[in-house]
Amino acid sequence: MTEGVRRIRSSIHTTSNYQVFLLVSVISGCATAHPLKPIVPVYPEAIRTANAQGRVTARFKIAETGEPGSIKIDVDTASSGLLESSVRSTLLKTRFAPARLLGFARSSELHYVFDFVLFRPKRALGPDEKWLGVDHFPAKCPVSQKERRVIVCGEAVPTISKSVF
Q1: What is the pLDDT of residue 72?
Q2: Sign of torsion, CA 150 155 157 159?
Q3: Environment class of residue 45 by beta-carbon count within 10 Å: exposed (0-12), middle (13-18) or buried (19+)?
Q4: Bridge partner residues of 72 (DSSP)
Q5: Fewest beta carbons within 10 Å, which of 12, 25, 62, 151?
Q6: Nearest CA among 67, 153, 136 for reference residue 107
Q7: 18: helix, strand or coil
Q8: Which residues make beta-bridge pairs with 8?
Q9: Which DSSP letter does residue 26 get?
C-alpha cells in the first residue's frame, strides 16, 4: 500500500460521519429540489377588487422528473377558492430541478407559503379627493426575506370621496 492511500484511510477513520457526508455531497452533487423559474401566482381580480388579502400554504411532491404532484393546499381566508386555484394552477405549470442524492434524482416534498398582499395605488389625488378604505395598506409591495415564501402583490382598489364644501 502506498503512503498516500494509507494517509487517506487514516484520515477517514478520524473524520466524523458528518464530515464524510459533506465531502460526498460536494463531490457527488446532492441538492434539494428548487424551481427553475420564480413561482409567481396571479392575484385573482375578483379578490383584488374586493381589497381582500390572504395566505395560502402549499405542500407538494416533486417527482424525479421535476414535475409537481400531490398538491395539498391550506388557505386562511374567506375567498379561499380563487386563491387556491391560482396557486394550484401556477404550481402545476412550474418545473423544478429535482432533489439529488449522490448524483441521482429523487422525489422530495416542498412547502411554500404564498402571501397575497395589497398596496396603495400610486395615483395622485385631486385637492378635494381622498382615498377610502386603503389607508392601512403599505405604499409599495413588500419583499420576502425568507426562502420558500412568495409575496403576490396587487394594487388595492380604493373608493374616491370628493369633499363638498
Answers
A1: 94
A2: positive
A3: exposed
A4: 59
A5: 12
A6: 67
A7: helix
A8: none
A9: H
* Cell triple for 149: 415564501
Is residue 64 within 8 Å of residue 106, measured between CB atoms? Answer: yes
Q: How far apart are CA 150 and CA 158, in angstroms?
A: 25
Distance CA 133, CA 51 (A): 9
Residue pLDDT, tens place only, 87-143: 999 999 999 999 998 888 999 999 999 999 888 777 776 777 666 666 677 778 877
Phi, psi for 61 (deg, rounded to 5): -100, 145
Give the amino acid at 43: Y
In this structure, which amino acid lies at residue 75? V
The three cell numbers of residue 88 are 394550484
Per the structure block, which three cell numbers stand in for 20? 464524510
